[in-house]
Amino acid sequence: MSGEYKGIIFDLDGVITETSEYHYQSWQRMADEEGLEFNREINENLRGVSRRRSLEIILNGKDLSEEEMKRLMDKKNGYYQEYLKDMDENDMLPGAQELINDALDKGFKLAIASSSKNAKTVISALKIRDLFETISDGHSVENPKPAPDLFLFTAEKLRLSSEQCIVFEDAEAGIDAANAANMLSVGIGPEDRVGHADFRFDKVKDVDLEIILKGEN
Ligand code: B16
Ligand code: MG
User: Fold this and answer.
1) Domain limits of the chain?
2) Pairwise CA distance, residues 31 & 197, whole Å
């Protein structure tokens, strides 16, 4: 393979599959049961951020003990894992399999870097584990996105430099993290969310690797 880029790092939720509705339903159920204010508008701020940070956003400054925080996170995660039991290979986002195939055909090394501690469960439900050299998840590093740590950790696993990696992300925090890691960032979603990426496409099925590799944005 010629060219400067050798690796592609994919976010999971919002790029390869759409588990965000399951996250939302699970937070909503927990919040309703606990008498916490929550709705789809607040949920927009949770995209791509860690479970703990998500709860902090929902609590909106309300101070809870560590034990209570853990109880609420566990409750939400229990509901979320119920949804995951119904996932299978049909839950790939339109265009995701084609993008992965194209990247493999072009000789790229592939990785997943997700904030989720459930990423491996999702990947095995989708039956895509063998397509990736390495999987980084919510257990891999201390500092979650928007810190660059997860992407830097993943590049190291791929044995590539930051400059050799392209990142696909649907979250504002994820593009912040990719930019901070000095990688080429590709945003999936609207301008007001991922407009700070080096390239942007509305949907995964719109992504054209040729455009990215030719540097035409
Ligand atoms: P968990 P990604 C993220 O996945 C989700 O977008 C975000 O909504 C969720 O809070 C986060 O994972 C943590 O998930 O509670 O399963 O550890 O987009 O980074 O693949
Ligand atoms: Mg995401």
Assistant:
1) 2-18+89-214, 20-84
2) 33
At what angle are helices 66-84 and 51-59 packed, to 10 degrees? 120
Q: Tens of pLDDT along 4-17? A: 999 999 999 999 99
Q: Which ligand is nearest to the CA of 150?
A: 1
Question: What length is written for the chain?
Answer: 217
- Residue 32 catalytic? no
Q: pLDDT for 144-172, tens place per residue?
A: 999 999 999 999 999 999 999 999 999 99
What CATH code is assigned to 2-18+89-214? 3.40.50.1000
Amino acid (1-letter code) at residue 127: K
Give the fold, CATH level 3, of 20-84. DNA polymerase; domain 1 (1.10.150)
CA distances, 89 to each of 49, 82, 104, 123, 199 (Å): 25, 17, 19, 9, 28
The ligand 1 atom at the shortest distance from the C-alpha of residue 112 is 20
Ligand positioned closest to the Cα atom of 119: 1
Q: Does residue 23 sit in helix, strand or coil?
A: helix
Annotated catalytic residue 198: no
The finding on whether 115 has its CB within 6 A of some atom of ligand 1 is yes
* Residue 76 token pair: 């939400």
Helix (H, G, I), strand (E, B) or coil at 118: coil
